[in-house]
Amino acid sequence: MKSTTIWTLVAFAVYLTGMLLIGAAYMKKTKSSEDFFLGGRGLTGWVAALSAQASDMSGWLLMGLPGTVYAMGTGQIWIAVGLLIGTILNWMLVAKRLRRYTIRANNALTLPKYLENRFHDKHRILLLASSLAIVIFFLVYTASGLAAGGKLFNSVFGIDYKICLTIGAVVILGYTFMGGFMAVCVTDFIQGLLMLAGVITIPIIAFMLVGAGNIMDNISATGLNADDYFNVLNSGDGVSFSAIDIISQLGWALGYFGMPHILVRFMAVKNEKEINKSRLIGCGWCALSLCFACFIGVVGRAYLPEVLAENQQENVFIEMIQRVFNHDIGIPLIGGIFLCGILAAIMSTADSQLLVTSSSVSEDIYHSLINKNADSKKVLWVSRITVIVVAVIAYLIALDPNSSIMGLVSNAWAGLGASFGPIVLMSLYWKRTNLAGAAAGIVSGALTVLIWDYIPLINGETLGTVTGLYSLVVGFAVSLALIVIVSLATKAPSEEMLEEFEDVKNGVNCGAERE
Asked: Taking CA 226 as the corner, what is the angle to CA 223 and CA 230, rounded to the nearest 5 degrees?
């Protein structure tokens, strides 16, 4: 085994052991289902911000996005622009009011439970529909994280992909199983710092090694027209973007309003003062990370003289780190630490997805629908068992080494965003929204994405392939329209629901007055 590989292995071993120790430490403090799901609503501003953003970006930030820019040029930055807009709007519009409403709505611990309590759903329609949507789309999302971990280990150590996938899955499962929400948030905080350090430092070093004057020439030498590559209005091969292309990429912003693993951080923040702090930290982290992730793709195209194969383009950051520290600088241990930053990006999202799916099954389905008399400790252990089951199913989905991280994330992001984004916004800001409208919005959003992306309706192709329009944009619009139409066409909300809405709006009886 090469000395560079040994040093990298040491860095990985120390890092992974540290994550497991954090999980073990918080296992002793996790005594109830509320601790497991929300950490007792005790997150500080820094932890809430970095854990929310780290759980958001995943391996997509350091593998999917740089790989897309590397292959297709700076025209792919529109996705990053959309995500930054979505992050800012989510912190501005949703964070504070959602925290208030979940407290006012009988201290809801999960997004499905919040929707049930918000709309006084005695028939459990929203609970079941939203729980099913979370389980379906989060299985795909979790699989994307595990696949990214497998590709990372495979690229760095040359070990069989399936073995690598197994190692990553076991570690993520381990600390999530043990420590629950607080273990996930604390590890995500550490991972968020590590991700930011890596995404800024590495491309700057590579850029200096290439030299600013050589960037254009080196990119041209790879067979691309440099002018087209740097034109943000085309795909890098001289073909101009259509309005649909840009709308589809910017449309990623809509997904934020419906991401349970991000929204749950808002629900768990200690108080509204901490939310104000978190907003600034989170948006700043997001802006820096997205800008430098795109920069990685550009610099990678110039820095790596060989063009990465089509199914290897998402490894551009991995290859860049190894070349910088194993060859050009010669400090493999530091390179190993920065490679852990990619692993951090992967783990920080996969753990959150496991936890949210677990909470949906154990709290929303088992506790609310199957065994209403289960005590908190029993629900806690059902949660832990669910974490194992979900991890195994996601592992099976991720077994294909050719699966695209970008593709898996895109599908899951669309499904969750269309299912929950419109109803979360309308539940917080339109008091005329009622139970019928909420149910219509969740179901129509999920079905629209599934039909648009998976059912071949035109000459054996899906509507998404034929139109080129991102399913999230369509699903969000359909869901929003049906929420409004069905709410207006059916019985108005009760006086009690309207009173709760006004309390949240004015900061009464929802925790705000004590802060």
From this structure: 130
Task: Please state, in angstroms and as integers, the Cα–Cα distance from residue 201 to each residue in 5, 214, 292, 398, 511, following that order.
Answer: 21, 20, 9, 30, 41
Per-residue DSSP letters for 113-140? HHHHHHTT-TT-HHHHHHHHHHHHHHHH
In Å, what is the CA distance from 23 to each residue of 28, 32, 36, 315?
9, 15, 12, 29
Give residue 438's identity as a one-letter amino acid code: A
Say if residues 248 and 90 touch (Cβ distance below 8 Å): no
Find all residues with CB under 8 Å of 344, minimum gap 6, and list them.
Answer: 15, 54, 190, 191, 192, 194, 195
What are the CB-based long-range contacts (under 8 Å, 24+) for 111-118? 111/260, 111/263, 111/264, 111/356, 111/420, 111/424, 112/360, 112/364, 113/363, 113/364, 113/368, 114/267, 115/423, 115/427, 115/438, 115/442, 116/368, 118/427, 118/438, 118/497, 118/500
- DSSP per residue, 253-275: GGGGGG-HHHHHHHHHBS-HHHH
Query: How far apart are alpha carbons 514 and 2 in whole angstroms?
Result: 59
Instruction: For residue 2, count other CB atoms closer than 10 A to its CB.
Output: 9
User: Which SS3 state, helix, strand or coil, does residue 34 take?
Assistant: helix
Query: Averaged in consecutive runs of 10 residues, what is the pLDDT profile of the chain (515 residues)?
Result: 75 78 68 54 62 65 84 88 94 93 84 92 90 84 77 77 79 65 66 81 93 88 84 78 90 92 81 84 89 92 77 82 86 84 70 74 78 77 80 81 69 92 97 97 96 90 92 97 98 95 86 55
Count of CB atoms situated within 10 Å of the CB of 160? 13
Contact 61, 406 (CB under 8 A): no
d(CA 272, CA 278): 10
**The two structure tokens encoding residue 180:** 């629950």
Angstrom distance (rounded) from CA 34 to CA 32: 5
Alpha carbons 63 and 296: distance in angstroms, whole number: 10
Question: Torsion-angle region of residue 88: left (phi > 0), alpha (psi -120 to 50) or beta?
Answer: alpha
Using left for φ > 0, alpha for ψ between -120 and 50, and beta otherwise, residue 274 falls in alpha
d(CA 348, CA 59): 9
Q: Cα separation of 196 and 286, whole Å?
A: 9
Query: What's the token pair of residue 270?
Result: 């200690």
